[in-house]
Amino acid sequence: MGRWFNQVFSRAKRLSFPVEDRRVLQKLLPGEPVVISGWVLCGRDATHRRILQALQEGSFQFDFTNQAMYYVGPTPAPEGRVIGACGPTTSGRMDAYMEDFLSLGVAATIGKGKRSPQVVELMKRHQAVYLATFGGAGAFLSQFVEKLEFIAWEDLGPEAFFRIKVRDFPAVVINTVSGEDFYSF
What we know:
The chain is an alpha/beta fold. It has helices at 2-9, 45-57, 98-103, 117-126, 138-141; strands spanning 13-17, 33-42, 68-70, 108-111, 129-132, 145-152, 161-175. The longest helix has 13 residues, at 45-57.
């Protein structure tokens, strides 16, 4: 990605998660590059089902307020690395869970691909954003991960619920809090 990547992302807006003040999300524009630092929650569709089931049963508690959720199921970490390839999963697979997770306080989701019109409306109602990162570039994205911590169900491997500490993780704003959709331009 070399020179192009450096030119675009050296001027990117900086976001830190969990966000202290969600008003920072109101300033994001569709198509705008961002770099993310801080802690990002991670999970895919099986993880989402497990979380919601455990919350409903009362066997699990977690504060999702102002968090970002990255749709990822990484490969095993090579020796000496924090994480293996960690490219995004197709976000549409999580659309069925969005209302629940936004109601829990999630401020941003990160993945690849388009979201349904219903999800765009939900994000508008909950003042949340959707960010996309580079599909097919999991090995590249792993260099932005500094730490990985399991939260629950470590035995599920890539379907475990975990979080990663990232620094300058690259993404692009796709859906804004006002309902703008970069893919519609």
